């Protein structure tokens, strides 16, 4: 009976730490009656951002919602195309205030851009994790930018200067007992140490990565991890013969042999680190000319299927999604757009011929210049290819006036219809942007060539010479699925 009671207490404690609720409220005075999307990193290797909640802002600009999570998390707040972020802790309540620079008259109508939304934590006002993180970042930045300290560390390899920074950090932040912050500060210092000792791989590994837990959700730890192991298995720092590596990845695609082979490197003996490095390095090799992209996908798929670590399964699957979503042969998630009358227009309507999609804003002069170039390409390839332009403008009235102003653009000009997830899938950050699909709706090229540059030459080759880019195998696509080599 006592044993059962103890087990019950343990279960309750575990449950408490796994599921902690936080109430988050605040005000976004510039965005009354708007919808806000709450996003976060799904993992810190692929850096996939996922939407975990949508919240309606009331007509006075106030909002309130609750979240359950088990460790500190970065939240990204998106209102249309503007966003801001904050680091919050579980089991704490927060009151926030959002603002945008006053130079923007209608900030909720801003199209894709780098306009920041400022997030201020009103409660808890002090001693919150976000304020500690901001303070340590400012301390390190100020130190490196003063008294020529960066040059002393990077060029002169001054151990004294590096030690001075550590002393400053310890004196200023040593009293803070927050576990996340202690790890964060340690690995932010490690990143500076890496600047000085970048070629001392074994020593750095021993100081920061040997027999230490992997802190998957700590941003500073994962930044150090990612920097330390960037292209590691291909580098001179690794003890991995490159000819054999090329054979295992690009020719045989033998996953277990590859994993075992990498384990002979002293820094990759730890199975957890070895799998993470393999996920990261395979993704970095994906777009190198000569790489067998289908084998990369199959190796990652095999890792996801066989790993003992649930976090690695998620990261591998996220990386597969990231790599293939813009690859030749992939079919983008079909979304419905809107015409000027508000009618729904399906992308599938344009199947049967290749389709060139231009993403634009009515305020983008380069986009308009491209449209004149599209006009010429459309005439040259009349009947062989379809063109559509998709406006990213929130204010559809602006699009209506734009279409009336340029009647010579005689192809469908549509609105993205607030399909933010569809836009996000193309990772669009600036205009003009474009994608070229084949007659079946599969990607031929992304980002596609500009109409003002090489598009005509590419299309001549595509149609006249029957040129077809080689598709990449994508798990779950239609057709016969290649079988991984038997291990």
Task: Give a brief description.
The protein has about 475 residues and is α+β, with helices and mostly antiparallel strands.
What does this structure look like?
With 487 residues, the chain is α+β, with helices and mostly antiparallel strands. It has four domains: 20-125, Sandwich (Immunoglobulin-like); 132-212, no CATH class; 232-324; 336-464, 3-Layer(aba) Sandwich (Glutaredoxin). It is 40% helix and 18% strand. It has helices at residues 2-18, 129-145, 149-154, 159-173, 179-196, 201-208, 219-228, 242-252, 255-262, 271-285, 293-306, 310-324, 365-380, 396-405, 420-425, 455-464, and strands at residues 20-27, 35-41, 49-56, 62-69, 73-79, 82-88, 94-99, 118-123, 336-338, 344-346, 355-360, 386-391, 413-415, 433-437, 443-445. The strands form four sheets. A five-stranded mixed sheet has the order 13-12-11-14-15. Helix 8 (242-252) crosses helix 11 (293-306), helix 10 packs parallel to helix 12 (310-324) and helix 11 (293-306) packs antiparallel against helix 12 (310-324). The longest helix is centred in the middle third of the chain and has 18 residues, at 179-196. The protein is globular, with a radius of gyration of 26 Å. The two termini are 49 Å apart. Residues 1-17 and 477-487 have low confidence and may be disordered.
